[in-house]
C-alpha cells in the first residue's frame, strides 16, 4: 500500500452559469429562489434594471453603493434596506464591490449580532451560525472573481483597512457570468480588473495552500489572461478576448476561495484602507516587486519550479523561466500604463505603517515563503 500525504478540499458556488447572453435569464432564475429581491448595484443601478424585468411573482428593490469596495456603513444600510422590504433574496449585480456587498448583506440579513462579530482582523471573526439568504452574483467586470469566493471585502474607514467577512456559507447559490456585460468597460478598468485577476491566479498557483484542482484552474486561467488581456484593453469589442478574460476572472475566484493568496494581496488590503486607490492597480503596481522577491527567496526550493512554470504559461514558451515571467509582467504593466504606488499618493514615510498592517493581513500568511519586514519594506520602496 502506498502512503499518500495529499489532502485537500474544494468548494464553490452551488451553480455556475457562464454564457454570453446569460443575463437575459436572470428574472426566471431569481424567481426560483425568492419573491422579494434586494438588487445591490454600483452607483448607477440602471444597467441592472434593464435585466430585472417586471414579473408578477417577484419584486425588485434596488440598492446602489458608492465607490469601489463596500464600506461597513454601506453594508449596514443595505441590511436595513433588505429588512425594510422583507427581502428573501439578494442579488449582487456589478463589479467586485457590488457582488461582495451582496454577499455580506445576504449573510447579515440571516444572522443576528453586530457586523464586527464576524469581521476578521478588526472584529471577533466569529463563524456565521445560519446560512445567508439565497444570493445570486452577477459580475459586470472581469477581475475579482467575487462571484465564486466565500468572503466579502469590506472597508472600515475608522480602522483605515479593508478586511473580510468570511464563511464557506457565503458562496453564492448562483454565479451568473455573462461576458457581454464586460464589453462596455473602458480601457483603464479593463487593465485594472484584468491585472487583478492575473495576480490572483499567480498568487493562488504559488501559495502554500495550492492543490491539484487549483493548479489546473490556475494554469488555464493564466494562459487565458496572457492571451487576451492586451487584446481586451486595446479593443473592448473583441468578444473572444472579453470571454477569455471573464473566464480568467471566474477561475481566479475559484482558486483563491480554495487556495488563498499571497503578499501582493497582503499589501493591497491595508493600502486600500489607507488610500483611495483602485484595488487592481495597487495589485499590478506591487506584482513585479513581490514576484521578484519571491523568486529570490525561494531559491532552488520546490516553490521555485512554480515560478518558472509561470514563465511558460505567460510567454507560451515551454522552456521559459521565472525571470522571463517577471519580464513579461513588467512589460505588460508598462503597456497598460500601470502607475507606481507613488503616483497613487503613497510615499516612503507610509512604509512602516503599511508593513505593520500587512503583516496582520490573512493573505500574507499564504505567501510561499515568509518575507521579513526588511524585504516587505524593500518591495514597497521598489513599487513607489
Please name the defining characteristics of this protein.
two-stranded antiparallel ribbon; 384 residues; six-stranded parallel β-sheet
Question: How do the helices and strands line up, and which of them pair or pack?
Answer:
Elements: E1 16-18, H1 26-31, E2 36-41, H2 46-51, E3 59-64, H3 72-84, E4 89-94, H4 96-110, E5 135-139, E6 151-156, E7 161-166, E8 174-177, H5 187-206, H6 212-234, H7 239-259, H8 263-274, H9 279-298, H10 302-315, H11 322-335, H12 351-360, H13 373-383
Parallel strand pairs: 1-8, 2-3, 2-4, 4-5, 5-8
Antiparallel strand pairs: 6-7
Helix pairs in contact: 3-4, 5-6, 5-7, 5-9, 6-7, 6-10, 8-9, 8-12, 9-11, 9-13, 10-11, 12-13
Question: What does this entry show, briefly?
Answer:
The protein has 384 residues and is an alpha/beta fold.
Structure description:
48% of the residues lie in helices and 11% in strands. With 384 residues, it is of the alpha/beta class. Strand 4, helix 4 and strand 5 form a beta-alpha-beta unit. It is globular, with a radius of gyration of 20 Å.
Helix content: 40-55%
Q: What profile does the largest beta sheet have?
A: 6 strands, parallel
Alpha-beta content class:
alpha/beta
The Rg value, from CA coordinates, equals: 20 Å
Mean pLDDT: 94
Global morphology? globular
Number of strands: 8
The strands making up the biggest β-sheet line up spatially as 1-8-5-4-2-3
Low-confidence stretches: none
N/C terminus separation: 54 Å
The succession of helices and strands, N to C, reads EHEHEHEHEEEEHHHHHHHHH
> How much of the residues is beta strand, in percent?
5-15%
Number of helices: 13
Amino acid at each position: 500500500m502506498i502512503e499518500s500525504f495529499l489532502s485537500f478540499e474544494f468548494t464553490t458556488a452551488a451553480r455556475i452559469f457562464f454564457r454570453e447572453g446569460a443575463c437575459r435569464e436572470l428574472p426566471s432564475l431569481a424567481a426560483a429562489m425568492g419573491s422579494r429581491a434586494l438588487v445591490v448595484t454600483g452607483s448607477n443601478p440602471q444597467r441592472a434594471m434593464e435585466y430585472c424585468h417586471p414579473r408578477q411573482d417577484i419584486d425588485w428593490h434596488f440598492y446602489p453603493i458608492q465607490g469601489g469596495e463596500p464600506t461597513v456603513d454601506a453594508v449596514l444600510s443595505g441590511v436595513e434596506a433588505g429588512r425594510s422590504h422583507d427581502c428573501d433574496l439578494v442579488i449582487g449585480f456589478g463589479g467586485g464591490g457590488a457582488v461582495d456587498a451582496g454577499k455580506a448583506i445576504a449573510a447579515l440579513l440571516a444572522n443576528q449580532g453586530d457586523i464586527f462579530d464576524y469581521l476578521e482582523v478588526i472584529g471577533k471573526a466569529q463563524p456565521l451560525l445560519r446560512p445567508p439568504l439565497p444570493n445570486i452574483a452577477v459580475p459586470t467586470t472581469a477581475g475579482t472573481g467575487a462571484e465564486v469566493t466565500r468572503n466579502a471585502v469590506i472597508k472600515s474607514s475608522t480602522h483605515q483597512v479593508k478586511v473580510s467577512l468570511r464563511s464557506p456559507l457565503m458562496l453564492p447559490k448562483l454565479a451568473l457570468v455573462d461576458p457581454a456585460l464586460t464589453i462596455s468597460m473602458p480601457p483603464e478598468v479593463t487593465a485594472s480588473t484584468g491585472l487583478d485577476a492575473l495576480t490572483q491566479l499567480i498568487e493562488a498557483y504559488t501559495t502554500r495552500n495550492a492543490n491539484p484542482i487549483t493548479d489546473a484552474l490556475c494554469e488555464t486561467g493564466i494562459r487565458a489572461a496572457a492571451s487576451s488581456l492586451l487584446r481586451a484593453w486595446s479593443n473592448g469589442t473583441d468578444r473572444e478576448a472579453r470571454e477569455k478574460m471573464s473566464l480568467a476572472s471566474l477561475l481566479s475566484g475559484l482558486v483563491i476561495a480554495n487556495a488563498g493568496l499571497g503578499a501582493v494581496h497582503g499589501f493591497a488590503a491595508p493600502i486600500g484602507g489607507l488610500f483611495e486607490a483602485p484595488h487592481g492597480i495597487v495589485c499590478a503596481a506591487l506584482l513585479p516587486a513581490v514576484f521578484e522577491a519571491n523568486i529570490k527567496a525561494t531559491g532552488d526550493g520546490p516553490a521555485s519550479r512554480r515560478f518558472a512554470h509561470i514563465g511558460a504559461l505567460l510567454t507560451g514558451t515551454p522552456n521559459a523561466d521565472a525571470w522571463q515571467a517577471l519580464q513579461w509582467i513588467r512589460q505588460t504593466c508598462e503597456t497598460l500604463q500601470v502607475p507606481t504606488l507613488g503616483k497613487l499618493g503613497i510615499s516612503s514615510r507610509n512604509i512602516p505603517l503599511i508593513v505593520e498592517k500587512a503583516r496582520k493581513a490573512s493573505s500574507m500568511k499564504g505567501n510561499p515563503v515568509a518575507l521579513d519586514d526588511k524585504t516587505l519594506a524593500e518591495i514597497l520602496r521598489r513599487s513607489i
